[in-house]
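Thread: quick sanity check before group meeting

JM: Hey all, I'm pulling together slides for Thursday and realized we never actually wrote out the predicted structure for the chain we discussed last week. Dropping the sequence here so it's in one place. If anyone has concerns about the input, flag it before I start.
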Amino acid sequence: MLSSRSLLPGLPEAEEITSIAFETSDPVDDFRVELSDKSIIYFQAKRSLSFSSLPTSELYDALRQCIRQFIKSPGNHDLLVLAVSPDASSRVREVLPELLDRYRQHQDGPDTTTLNKTQEETLTQFRDLISALLSAEGHPAWSPDTFASFARSLNVFTFDIDTSGSHEVVAQLLLEPLSKYPSSLLWTKLISLALDASKKRRRFDRGGLRTTLKSYLRPEPTVGQPDPADEQREWSATFTNMGPPSVANDVLLAVLTSPDSDRPLTLFQVARFAADDRARVRYKDGMFTAGVFSGKVLLRAATWAGMARLIELRPEVTTEKTVTIIEPNEGPQDESFHLTERQIALASLLESGVKGLECLRCGRFVLQEQALTVEIDEDGHNHQAGVVHDRCHRPCDRVLGTLNNEQARTLPSDFDIPAWIRLEKSGQGASASIKQAKRLGHRLAKIVWNPDNEQEWTKNWCVEIELASGHCHYATTRGKLIRLSQSDARRKSAEMQTQMEAMLRTGRPFQMTTVSGKMGNDETVIDLHKLKDADEEVSFVRAVRAVLVTREILRRYPPKNFYAPLLYLIDPITEDPIDLGGVRSFFSDPTIVPELILRWRKAGFFKGEYSARIIGSDAEFDRMTTRAIEEGRRIVIDPEFDEQWFLCSGGEVENINVLLNNARRPALALVEHRQARKIGRNDPCPCGSGKKYKRCCWLTESS
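JM (edit): ok, ran it. Output follows.
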């Protein structure tokens, strides 16, 4: 069901398993597998089975259940499976399956002339046994066709699922790509789950099974949909110790206070749990108690190798001190102990604990190249697992391993990672435009900026669009609410109302979707935006009006950023922005800044120290851009400079009003030139087109 592949040769591999039920009310009752084509496979499991036709034999009892199932559902394409272990007799494991296969391969069954003596005896006894069972169950007289039909539906399979058995190995290989941890853990969990389901007569469908095993399984990919994580920068770190963490023992470096005071500084191993799964060691306020032993904990790790690495990181603990090492003499460790629910629970707890890279002790982001992953299980504390700062690590924290964060080397030392992660989830449309321009071969892109945006944040009116269905939408651009002054909002709403009434008179009224707010005046346009939501409908626009911006409206249309978040450099003393080559520089990727600074230092372009700050909103970007332009600075996002400190790549922020004025200037100059002298209608047009003036620009100027 999990791997979508069958371990049973001869079974329909193309069909998907939809559900599994244990200890059912069917005659063949061990478990039932339902396939996507509505067919069913009934399993009867027997560990050791000898070939005997005696009514007291296990084979007689197992086949009687199969006969009852066969009689209950005649003519169906259901399959009957008799599952045995390698302990079954060879006639059950080898001879009988081969005979049944011949019935599936030949309509009339096997050719008796090709059978050896053992096969002939087995076939004769099997026929007699089935005939007796059919008669005992009150079935009509035995016939060759009835026997052949039953033989084709019966399958005998040998499952070698003992430790290191062939089917166990294959099953774990199939589970390997699905499991977060070594597949042996998932396989053990499945065995435990099946035994429990047999006791409780449970049934699982595919979704329910994945939900039950969600702490063991990797996330299931969504077909046809890109993973959002692929489009976002990964801020996660990686473990140096792969696999589930150890839970069986503690390795302690402690100052013993009892019962032996002659060896105060001791390194030893202690089992954490007793046979009944109760804790054998207790920790509180930096002290431990384990039976008659107690003392002050200096270091604590999950393994001896972990303790060795921990001592390397904390050499001051053992410097110039005599340490007594008590080697473990308990013999080989019971590996089955590591396959418990406790280990899986710790692995799941650790995975969620390190996801945000926040210190378990202080709650701040851990920006270290190598940080400790620990388990906290002291008395009086919640059970936690995750990452801690070196300065926050406490002696009783059980060190599980280390976490490598390569990005710690590529970020400014005082950079606020949590704030950046929150802001990076939306916005940065400007940097996306720069990347798109580079892909098209344009090294320098123009990023249009409207200086009126800065005033927009102080405007408290907007345009409301009321639908006949009672829904209300508001005028937006790029998903952002358009905020206007009162006079502009009234003028805009009046224009839209007039346009709406004009379209109504033509018989093509404005329409709008109730959920997504898509507008159009043609059903074909509206249909393109329908069915995105189960509650999506199309309604006519009833009224347009100017309204005040309320908190409810702002919650519905939260601010979205186009430019932000961005990073810029400041002088750590004066806190003034640092200009590079006379350019006010903003960066969309904080990880590239240290490398750029290092390169510029080597070239002699950059000297001194710097700190990093975040532009967290477009409103802040507008204010900074306005100040930079007033100071006569160029503003570039993601700048790159050549050896001569000339700007060669990036996105230069341009005032939209300046761009429009520059675009109008040639046309204005041409009009002024024409007005300076009288141009005849039949003269050549001064624009250089080669046409007569009356056939070219005169038409435009006259209109």
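AS: nice. The CA atoms of residues 571 and 609 lie 7 Å apart. The chain has 20 helices and 30 strands.
JM: adding both to the slides.
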